Fold this protein.
Amino acid sequence: MASHAVATQHKQGLSNGMLGFILFLASEVMFFGGLFAAYFIARADANEWPPEYLLTPEQIASGVKLEVEFWLPFIATILLVTSSVTIQAAVFSIQRGNRSGLIRWTFISIVLGLVFLVMQMYDYSQLHFGVGDTIYGTTFYTLTGFHGLHVAGGVVFMGIILARSLAGQFTAANHEAVEACSFYWHFVDVVWIALFTTLYIIP
């Protein structure tokens, strides 16, 4: 009977909760895929990119420039990629039953996520165009803004994981929520790498 129960447990594979979470991530992939598609369609329809020719005389007179800063988002990208490493270190720690490692690496990941958000807000404050300044401004702020909201959601998710970790709710045998959190954070990082490449590197 005991061996049958163990065999049944191994056959179960993914839990319903994890399967549902993976489906949620799949829907998020489609959501961002739609945003990227809108961006590239707008870019393909423009005579030049960024479309400076679409600026009105009033916008030009007010100092609107369709230019982005590179180095600040680049540093923010490094921090976000680093946070993906640290959250995975948190997963590895709890897989070995190391709760203190889980707490430490999760906390570091939260700090890195918060620093990324602060840097993004500062970067916004330095830009010389707004969401209504041509299709470029609209797509830029839509893509980066929605990603920023997802980063904020990921920070909250990690905060919940940290609180549960401090309460001793995770063990080497029971840490599915930690893995789900890492999956979400890796997704957020991959999306940002695609965004950074699209908005800041590709001319």
Q: What stands out?
A: Residues 1-11 have pLDDT under 50 and may be disordered. Helices lie at 2-12, 16-45, 57-61, 71-95, 99-126, 134-166, 176-201. The first helix runs from residue 2 to 12.
